[in-house]
Specification:
Protein name: TLDc domain-containing protein
Largest sheet: 10 strands, antiparallel
Number of strands: 15
Radius of gyration: 25 Å
Helix content: 25-40%
Strand content: 15-25%
Structural class: alpha+beta
Distance between the termini: 70 Å
Length: 518
């Protein structure tokens, strides 16, 4: 039999012993460093549990969580995230119909949560996928789950159906071996295995397949949900993102009113929705947005936890917060406001030295430059150039688009190779971006001409994909977004596969050119 010899009759494969073995793995490895355990011991010195109120207070005193009501709301979401991660691989949801919110987190629970929340620590408690991209996806998925609610199966039959990547599948069958939640449980049970042998317990290295049947039984017994049942309510995510945007920069003094970030947070969160009217975020759109549109957004979440509970500035593989730009204290009149600059950090951290980030030129609708003059100013930048267009559509709604060029002297003729790596140590290549009303990023294809110019217009892109056309002596602009099968062959800037085909026309109200200059 598949389960023969793995000690089921002695309770070794019950929930509590499995969690105990996960705790053993945390204590007996470098999942947590000795100095980190000592710091946690100080936190728990005055009580057996860390309540939600105390947790949020620590995020504010030891981390950089704002002390405002908006900061507390974000802290509550992060606390719930840690409660979820602490219960893996048997997830518990405080808001469930038959669940009771926990009184707080024990020391072991907090350590488990911190380990699951850090991709470099998880490897000490489970054997990760040898495929780096898949391992990164699994890690990001668990963060998604920790921020999500479980939706009833009758209302979630096709939640994860729409993925633009034909090479990825998302199972909606709770009994499927390919279901990600089942695979997490299987990974933990296999990695912490103990078998019964001659009346005693011995750790051995049985094949992963030997544990499939028992894991299916455990999943049914403890009602472990399927990934397709998970959704993040957009209102909850917006409350978190509002705070994460501020934390893209190092602490800013005086304290910034988080209500200033409402519009920016809505724009970022809109990029996580497949349809504008959706009220929940699903896993495929969450993964696409974090990987492709705002790859550094969640770094603030990781930094906040690491600073508060581990005494470190940033976890391994996560960039430090961007240094505060001088424009934060500059006089009024800058169109690229602090919230918009925080949006830029979510995809340009490490591509721009934000402490040196300076507005080079500003043009209003009454003194717009000629197309040639605009490009001449761009190409005169010694390093990066950022052109930001502030416009108004026929509906009266405002919009913000732009172009980032790391090598403006070269990208016009041929987009250069600047490709970010999964470890966040690379530079972004020439790209069209959108900041409002939806944040998006359309990366240039290396070798294609970044732009063409004539007497009355500048056009960024050609063929399919995304084209930003500045016409009528820069008074009007049009953005065309077209998805095609031969995107990389026919296009210059890659389209977002979730957003379909559309065209936006707008009047240009202001133009700003920015760069990091000494």
């Amino acid at each position: 039999m598949a389960n023969e010899g793995i000690g089921i009759e002695q309770g070794i494969m019950a929930k509590e012993p499995i969690i105990e073995r996960v705790d053993d793995s945390v204590r007996l490895t470098y999942a947590m460093w000795p100095e980190e355990e000592a710091l946690l011991a100080q936190i728990f010195d005055k009580g057996a549990i860390l309540t939600k109120t105390a947790f949020i207070s620590l995020l504010a005193t030891k981390g950089a969580l704002p002390r405002s009501s908006e900061g507390v709301e974000a802290g509550e979401i992060i606390y719930t995230s840690m409660v979820y991660l602490a219960t893996l691989p048997f997830p518990h949801y405080p808001e469930g119909p038959d669940a009771q919110p926990p009184d707080g987190l024990s020391s072991n629970q907090l350590m488990r949560g911190l380990v699951w929340a850090n991709t470099d620590r998880v490897k000490y408690i489970i054997e990760q996928n040898s495929d780096d991209e898949r391992a990164e996806s699994d890690y990001l998925r668990r963060i998604f789950q920790s921020l999500a609610s479980v939706r009833s199966s009758e209302n979630a039959s096709d939640i994860t159906r729409d993925s633009p990547d034909e090479n990825k599948t998302y199972s909606s069958d709770p009994d499927s071996d390919s279901d990600e939640m089942y695979q997490d449980l299987l990974a933990v049970v296999h990695s912490t295995q103990v078998v019964r042998q001659y009346g005693g317990h011995l750790r051995v290295n049985l094949r992963r397949d030997r544990f499939r049947t028992i894991c299916k039984s455990l999943r049914k017994e403890y009602k472990v949900p399927s990934l397709h049942e998970f959704v993040i309510p957009i209102q909850r995510f917006t409350a978190l993102v509002r705070c994460l945007l501020l934390l893209q920069f190092e602490p800013i003094e005086p304290v910034v009113d988080l209500s200033r970030f409402d519009s920016a947070a809505r724009s970022v969160c809109a990029s996580f929705l497949q349809n504008p009217n959706d009220r929940v975020i699903t896993w495929p759109t969450f993964e696409y947005a974090v990987r492709n549109i705002a790859p550094y957004l969640l770094d603030a979440y990781y930094r906040l936890l690491t600073q508060t509970f581990c005494g470190r500035s940033s976890p391994f593989g996560v960039l430090d917060a961007a240094e505060v730009p001088s424009s934060v204290s500059a006089p009024a009149g800058i169109a690229l406001t602090l919230p918009l600059q925080c949006q830029l950090v979510t995809f340009l951290n490490n591509s721009i030295a934000f402490d040196l980030f300076t507005r080079i030129r500003h043009y209003s609708a009454s003194n717009l430059p000629t197309p040639t003059a605009l490009l001449s100013t761009m190409q005169a930048m010694p390093d990066e150039a950022l052109v930001v267009l502030f416009g108004k559509m026929a509906t009266g709604e405002s919009c913000t688009f732009g172009l980032f060029s790391p090598t403006p002297k070269s990208d016009g003729l041929s987009i250069q190779i600047f490709k970010p790596s999964p470890s966040h140590d690379g530079f972004e290549r020439c790209s069209i971006f959108q900041l409002a009303p939806v944040q998006d990023l359309y990366r240039g294809i290396v070798g294609k001409p970044g732009w063409i110019v004539d007497d009355k217009r500048v056009t960024f892109g050609q063929g399919g994909g995304v084209i930003l056309d500045l016409k009528d002596n820069l008074a009007q602009a049009q953005v065309r977004h077209q998805i095609s099968e031969g995107d990389e062959i026919e296009s210059t800037y890659k389209a977002n596969p979730f957003r379909g085909n559309w065209v936006i026309d707008f009047e240009i109200i202001e133009v700003e050119i920015w760069s990091d200059v000494v």
